[in-house]
Prior knowledge:
It is built from no helices and eleven strands. The chain is mainly β. Strands 2, 4, 5, 6, 9, 10 and 11 form a seven-stranded mixed beta sheet that branches.
Amino acid sequence: VQLQASGGGLVQAGASLKLSCLYSGPTLSTYAIAWFRQSPGKEREFVSAISWTGSGTYYADSVKGRFTISRHNAKNTVYLQMNGLKPEDTAVYYCAADPGTRVSGTAVGDYRYWGQGTLVTVSS
């Protein structure tokens, strides 16, 4: 399984960005997808996750109400719409996949496959 995150960039506080995660794997495979982020000197932390059907979505408290996760399975893509960005959102954002249909957890170890990350920088 391969994942490729894109859409990061440099924005001012209050702006919006939309990240994309393109995933590929064996035909008929299903995956729950999550976004994590990591800032310099900090551990990788959970941001959001979505089940295979999209019916289950989960958010870290720090992004709830500002970020929205969605997916388009026909395009093998998961999106993270980020609104009202804050300087503390600055991080490398990673998407990760867990085989199955449901979101099994929010820990790094709950996800088997990882993409390379995309950098989001929010200036004050």
